């Protein structure tokens, strides 16, 4: 049975309270207001918190208190104000205030099972976090199934469950790195044919997978994919100074370019000043996105299943990319802390071959102006993405003002990137009407003289394709796949992969 804390309006609480008590659950406290909720959750650490969605009860502080205490929060929305507040905070487990207790108990039962470990260890999957069960609409309730008999052993604490999960993952990785003893090769027994597979980024089958002809000796045995270490994806961060040089448009087009070439792609909008990826791709503001992924990462509950749930699927010309949309309200920047963003990026490496991160323009470090060194940092998401990237695409606008802004911020950029990160300079929206005759040669000369930059990629200006992309909620590459912009961007995408391949494995 679950330990439940109630923070509801009187009429809703009176309607649900009888069912809670009849079902045998323990109501540890009944509070009103965000401050009382934070104090009670911190002191009692309940299994489940059922709270009203109004701003006087549900805010970023109360949500963070529930996550820190390991308490799963179920939010009931009674009107449009509560609904907007709940969606703005990125709460996943949201329900209509008129829900009956039998339906609500299904979610409470899942939360309570998180505190009982099953014999096979699968019970640890249901961590007590606010983003554990997907509820895509006000009345879409995920009903818990039969999870088998309850283990009679005493329930583990949250810290013990985390340590148990980490030990299981560590043992699994160690066993995966050991040689497979069952794959010894007998020269007298011919090898069984296996389906041909393609290498990363190639359409040709792997020659090691061909079956030897009769009378020939079989090739040496190859370790199975399960016995080989997992190849982590490459992280490419798109950055540019203030002045709208086209960071988000280039990030979208890069993601589409890699996806259309057969690579799995994850696109992350980590701009702390308000993301634009969701708006440009037509993704609903109700999508959980990066904020929900960060909360799961902060609770050490972000896995492949949860990553798939909080991300959105966006179709390109011939493939699909997964998108973690950014924060809609810039006031929510404290949720994008360094540790959480790094956890999301590490998980994204496991999910895709290419990870594209769109970050903000500012590289200012708040430590120089704040006395509280433990306080959250406004640009933490940008610095974290730059530090743990394999490749940083530094974008400059092809105007005298854009080049000047880029050169002024270049020194800060080089201090923010990782020690072995490759920085590729790209000048966007090239046009002779602004810089005069032979604009490309003039820009290269300025960057070489004042920035010491020898290699520069140029992307042409294509306003018509950009307008079609905005109207169709697609990338510029998908809007004009045969344009000069698309051809040059495709060549740039391949060069970035080649540069990232030169880096040591596990550069981050």
Entry summary:
With 508 residues, the chain is α/β, with parallel strands linked by helices. It has 18 helices and 13 strands.
Helices, strands, pairings?
Layout: E1 3-7, H1 10-22, E2 26-30, H2 34-44, E3 48-52, H3 60-69, E4 72-77, H4 80-88, E5 94-96, H5 101-113, H6 158-177, E6 234-239, H7 247-260, E7 265-270, H8 277-281, H9 289-298, H10 304-310, E8 312-315, E9 320-324, H11 338-351, E10 354-359, H12 380-387, E11 391-397, H13 400-416, E12 422-430, H14 432-435, H15 439-451, E13 456-460, H16 463-472, H17 476-479, H18 484-501
Parallel strand pairs: 1-2, 1-3, 3-4, 4-5, 6-10, 6-11, 7-9, 7-10, 11-12, 12-13
Antiparallel strand pairs: 8-9
Helix pairs in contact: 2-3, 7-18, 9-11, 11-12
């Amino acid at each position: 049975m679950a330990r439940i804390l109630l923070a509801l309006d009187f009429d809703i609480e009176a309607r649900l309270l009888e069912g809670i008590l009849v079902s045998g659950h323990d109501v540890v406290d009944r509070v009103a207001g965000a401050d009382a909720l934070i104090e009670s959750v911190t002191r009692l650490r309940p299994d489940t918190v059922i709270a009203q969605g109004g701003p006087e009860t549900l805010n970023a502080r109360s949500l963070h208190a529930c996550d820190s205490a390991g308490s799963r929060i179920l939010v009931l929305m009674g009107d449009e104000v509560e609904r907007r507040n709940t969606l703005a905070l990125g709460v996943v487990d949201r329900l209509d205030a008129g829900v009956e207790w039998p339906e609500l108990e299904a979610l409470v039962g899942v939360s309570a099972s998180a505190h009982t470990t099953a014999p096979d260890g699968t019970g640890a999957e249901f961590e007590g976090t606010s983003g554990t069960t997907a509820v895509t609409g006000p009345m879409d309730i995920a009903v818990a199934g039969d999870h088998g008999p309850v283990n009679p052993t005493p329930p583990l604490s949250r810290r013990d469950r985390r340590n148990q999960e980490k030990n299981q993952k560590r043992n699994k990785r160690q066993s995966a790195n050991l040689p497979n003893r069952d794959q010894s090769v007998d020269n007298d027994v011919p090898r069984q044919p296996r389906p041909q597979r393609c290498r990363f980024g190639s359409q040709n089958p792997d020659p090691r997978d061909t079956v030897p002809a009769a009378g020939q000796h079989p090739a040496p045995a190859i370790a199975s994919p399960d016995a080989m270490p997992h190849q982590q994806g490459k992280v490419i961060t798109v950055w540019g100074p203030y002045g709208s040089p086209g960071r988000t448009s280039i990030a979208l087009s890069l993601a589409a370019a890699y996806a259309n070439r057969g690579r799995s792609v994850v696109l992350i909008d980590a701009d702390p000043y308000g993301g634009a990826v969701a708006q440009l791709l037509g993704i609903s503001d109700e999508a959980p996105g990066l904020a929900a992924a960060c909360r799961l990462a902060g609770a050490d509950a972000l896995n492949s299943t949860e990553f798939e749930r909080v991300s959105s699927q966006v179709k390109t010309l011939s493939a699909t990319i997964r998108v973690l949309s950014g924060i809609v309200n810039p006031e929510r920047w404290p949720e994008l802390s360094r540790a959480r963003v790094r956890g999301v990026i590490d998980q994204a490496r496991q999910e895709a071959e290419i990870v594209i991160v769109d970050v903000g323009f500012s590289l200012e470090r708040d430590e120089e102006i704040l006395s509280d060194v433990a306080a959250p940092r406004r640009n933490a998401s940008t610095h974290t993405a730059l530090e743990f990237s394999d490749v940083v695409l530094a974008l400059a606008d092809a105007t005298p003002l854009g080049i000047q802004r880029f050169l002024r911020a270049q020194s800060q950029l080089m201090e923010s990137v990782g020690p072995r990160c490759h920085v590729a300079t790209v000048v966007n929206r090239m046009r002779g009407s602004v810089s005069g005759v032979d604009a490309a040669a003039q820009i290269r000369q300025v960057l070489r003289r004042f920035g010491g930059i020898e290699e520069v990629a140029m992307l042409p200006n294509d306003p018509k394709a950009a307008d079609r992309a905005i109207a169709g909620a697609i990338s510029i590459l998908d809007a004009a796949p045969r344009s000069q912009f698309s051809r040059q961007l495709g060549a740039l995408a391949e060069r970035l992969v080649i540069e990232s391949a030169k880096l040591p494995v596990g550069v981050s």
